[in-house]
Amino acid sequence: MSVTNGRARGLPALIAIVSGFALLLRLYLTLRDGTSVTGSLIDYFGFLTEWTNCLVFLTMVLPLLVPASAAGRFFMRKDVTGWVTASITFVGIAYFLLLSRDGPKHGLGWLANVLLHYAVPALVVIHGLIRLRGTALPWVTPFWWALYLLVYFIYALIRGALIDKYPYGFINVDRLGYAVTVRNGLMLLLAFLLLSYALLLICRLMKARL
Known about the structure:
Layout: H1 3-33, H2 37-44, H3 48-65, H4 70-76, H5 78-99, H6 107-132, H7 141-163, H8 173-205
Helix pairs in contact: 1-2, 1-3, 1-6, 3-4, 3-5, 3-6, 5-6, 5-7, 5-8, 7-8
InterPro entries: Pr6Pr-like (IPR049713)
Keywords: Membrane, Transmembrane, Transmembrane helix
Transmembrane segments: 12-29, 41-68, 80-98, 110-130, 142-162, 182-203
């Protein structure tokens, strides 16, 4: 077994452990600070961070536990690896640029934020580059990946309209109105596409073997 192959097999388990622990820690903090279990769960699943870290967890765990299943084979596809890598990288960068100043600076909340927004994205990028090095995915692929963000954006707006609570200030319709909110969403979508195309280009340029 080569060093590269061993690393590629070991990384998914490590990422699953880190992301799983971070998700459980964030869930514990949300339940602890919430007024009800139902309300806490609604809050928990309102954020793109939780959505995408759950996606990362499934991407790493299912191919390890049930590789022959339809779900296991799906998450082993290289275009899916790219989608998950681009999505969690976008989460980390967006958090750092737009939200980190308002996040907790110590304690368990700080630890959860560091794991969910920095540690997991960094590990997934390493895993993604190992799996995708030398891979030439179709140039149209990022537009398919972007559907994930579009689904989340629509969900966040519908959820906000129903419970009068938006997960992020830059998509708060009550404060900004729909025109500005949609504009912000389109700008974020464009940023995601640029990031995704950068990932595709890097993977194409990397040698097939390290």
